[in-house]
């Protein structure tokens, strides 16, 4: 997750949708349905999406709910992960999107423009601008103007920013490892491979439509 901040980042977001600073929600094909079903709708050992699917089968037995069973679960997992408190980041006074910016600068190892950061973290330009302002005020990143075009800014980590990333990253990875501990190593590898295949397809289809 965190180690893959960037094009697959992160991990940290619903696939195919630019993130904002508005927090997590249950958007997607079954988001509103999941909330309406309520936690009590699921049977013994069922997840909430299974309850949603059963309800749809009752009222519309003619439709194929196969896509809902995948996309609905992805959206639900994304919402729960985004709502969860990332303890190491919270202790460092960082939000997940802010850490994505710092992590991107650390892993690439060189200066990036705000536009490049937006593409790497799958964020809007306005969201990146807000994060950079906050991180600059904390002394974690610094900006310099381009020598040839003053309209262009280049962003880099300060020593304090680099030290903070190196300190928090192992703790955050340990936290995320705990979140995934319900799946064995084989299950995690299988899930990662399947999600990777889906992401490549979505980036090819949806990414091209945004460019």
TrEMBL record:
Keywords: DNA-binding, Transcription, Transcription regulation
Compositionally biased residues, Low complexity: 1-14
Pfam families: MarR_2
InterPro entries: HTH_MarR-typ, WH-like_DNA-bd_sf, WH_DNA-bd_sf
Record domain HTH marR-type: where: 67-200
Segments for region (Disordered): 1-42
Top-rank taxon: Bacteria
Biased composition (Basic and acidic residues): 16-35
SUPFAM superfamilies: Winged helix' DNA-binding domain
Keyword DNA-binding applies: yes
Protein name: MarR family transcriptional regulator
Protein's organism: Streptomyces lannensis
């Amino acid at each position: 997750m965190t180690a893959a901040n960037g094009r697959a980042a992160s991990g940290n977001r619903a696939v195919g949708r630019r993130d904002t600073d508005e927090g997590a929600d249950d958007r997607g094909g079954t988001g509103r349905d999941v909330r309406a079903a309520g936690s009590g709708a699921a049977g013994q050992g069922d997840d909430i999406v299974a309850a949603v699917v059963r309800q749809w089968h009752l009222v519309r037995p003619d439709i194929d709910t196969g896509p809902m069973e995948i996309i609905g679960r992805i959206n639900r997992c994304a919402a729960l992960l985004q709502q969860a408190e990332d303890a190491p980041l919270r202790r460092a006074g960082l939000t997940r999107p802010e850490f994505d910016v710092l992590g991107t600068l650390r892993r690439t190892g060189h200066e990036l423009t705000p536009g490049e950061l937006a593409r790497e973290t799958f964020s809007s330009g306005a969201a990146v601008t807000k994060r950079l302002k906050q991180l600059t005020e904390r002394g974690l990143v610094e900006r310099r103007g381009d020598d040839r075009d003053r309209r262009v800014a280049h962003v880099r980590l300060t020593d304090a920013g680099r030290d903070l990333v190196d300190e928090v990253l192992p703790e955050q990875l340990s936290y995320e490892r705990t979140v995934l501990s319900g799946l064995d190593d084989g299950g995690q590898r299988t899930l990662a491979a399947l999600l990777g295949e889906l992401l490549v397809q979505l980036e090819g289809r949806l990414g091209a439509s945004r460019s």
